Amino acid sequence: MVQTIRPQNLNLRSYIHSFNLCSLDWGEIIQAGNSLKGIQNGLVAIWFCKGDPFQISLDGLTFYQAKGAFVIGLTQHFTLFKGQGTTEALIINMYPWAINLLLGLPPIELSHQLIRVEDCFPKALLDKFSALDADLFNPCFLEKLESLLLPELNPQNKLQIWIPYAHRVLESGKEVIQVDELAHRTGISRQHFRRLFKEHVGVTPKQFAQISKIRRSVDDKWHNTDKLLTQLAHDHDFHDQAHFIHLFKKLTGECPHAFFQQKHMVDLHLGD
């Protein structure tokens, strides 16, 4: 079971995309022939887990025994597997600039690795998390969590409003826009825009636009299972099917045919 909830406090919505509350029964997942798969989404996920540990595979190479809390970088695709028993998790899906404003960590440092929360969160903040109600699915839990996070917003590190604006334009895909035009709208030079975007988001505008397109295509296919790859490529503004397949494999580690033939519980939280 995965429940996705948007922050209720408006001040947090510029920093946190959503909260995921997960209850995973690994026996049921394995019996159904599923794996839990996450692909790049332009967000930084902070996981707080309780219950039985499980293993996580990044890029099919690195294995990590997941127990407690950890951070997944925004450009990472991963597979969770080999779980036993049950696991409950709170996943805070943060916009990448929030990692810097809340924790002082440049998002680029989180791009291709797992980081233990205790290695990047201030101890005082971790102690506050530990003191929260242990029942993640208690209706009051997220209210308490938001109250805890709000004081951590550093007023000295004010968010430049153009950052979430540019992020939303590229993420939504509602208009085809060049970097030059987006830079012009924000009132800064193309080179300066590209440098600041990568500094605050962790990837270049072009890379983030590609990540967002692939996310939207996966979401579309999941809701329209009969849609052909040629139609997906056309609907999401790829040059052709070959371009779509090339970028899909680059960002997910698998070609679309193999990816969609498998039984994945895909971790999707792009968009509202």
Compose a concise summary of this entry.
The chain is of the alpha+beta class and 272 residues long.
Please provide a written account of the structure:
The protein has a domain at about 1-150: Sandwich (Jelly Rolls), CATH 2.60.120.10. The chain is about 40% helix and about 20% strand. The chain has helices at about 25-30, 95-105, 125-130, 140-150, 160-170, 180-185, 190-200, 205-225, 230-235, 240-250, 255-260, and strands at about 1-5, 15-25, 35-40, 45-50, 55-60, 60-65, 70, 80, 85-95, 115, 265. Helix 5 (about 160-170) packs across helix 8 (about 205-225), helix 6 (about 180-185) crosses helix 7 (about 190-200) and helix 9 (about 230-235) crosses helix 10. The protein is globular and about 50 Å long.
Q: Write down how many β-strands occur, each being a DSSP E stretch of 2 or more residues.
A: 11
* CATH topology call of one domain: Jelly Rolls
The coarse overall form would be globular
Contiguous low-pLDDT stretches (5 residues minimum) are 268-272
Average residue-wise pLDDT = 76
| Strand order, sheet with most strands | 1-2-9-4-7-10
Helices and strands, with pairings:
Blueprint: E1 2-5, E2 16-25, H1 26-31, E3 35-38, E4 44-51, E5 54-58, E6 62-66, E7 69-72, E8 78-81, E9 86-94, H2 96-103, E10 114-116, H3 123-130, H4 141-149, H5 162-172, H6 179-186, H7 190-201, H8 205-223, H9 229-235, H10 241-252, H11 256-261, E11 264-267
Parallel strand pairs: 3-11
Antiparallel strand pairs: 1-2, 2-9, 3-8, 4-7, 4-9, 5-6, 5-8, 7-10
Helix pairs in contact: 5-8, 6-7, 9-10
